Amino acid sequence: MQAPSWVFVFSVALLGSVVLPDTARAYRPVVIVHGILDSALALFHLRNAILEAHPGTEVYMVAMFQDMKSAWPMWTQVLGFGNAIKNISDIHKDQGINIIGYSQGGLISRGVIQVCVGSKKCLQFFCVK
What we know:
- It is a single chain.
- The chain is an alpha/beta fold.
- It contains four helices and six strands.
- It has helices spanning 6-15, 44-53, 74-91, 104-117; strands at 18-19, 26-27, 30-33, 59-61, 97-102, 122-128.
- The strands form two sheets. The chain has a four-stranded parallel β-sheet with strand order 4-3-5-6, sandwiched between helices.
- Helix 1 (6-15) crosses helix 2 and helix 3 packs across helix 4.
- It is globular and about 40 Å long.
């Protein structure tokens, strides 16, 4: 299955997220947040495209509030995803993270950045529909 054309946009954008640690070149970790009535698996093609374009990138697919649970109150989802994404950003506190939110996942991610993670830890945010 061929990846959608917007995958190319992320690939190019992620090139700008290269960080240079002491020993080797690495890419900033990417967190993917799914949309409404969806699951993390629905965006597996995006994960694969990122890994193909940028081997070695750590890609996190947050598997929370999937399918019908994605209709739960938005604030509940922001706090739930926020805890998970904050844990990821704490692991990578020296280099920061990139977040990709698809559809409703973009709204949730925006809330997470504002309330839980902070813009100093999330260095790039992409919202797609």
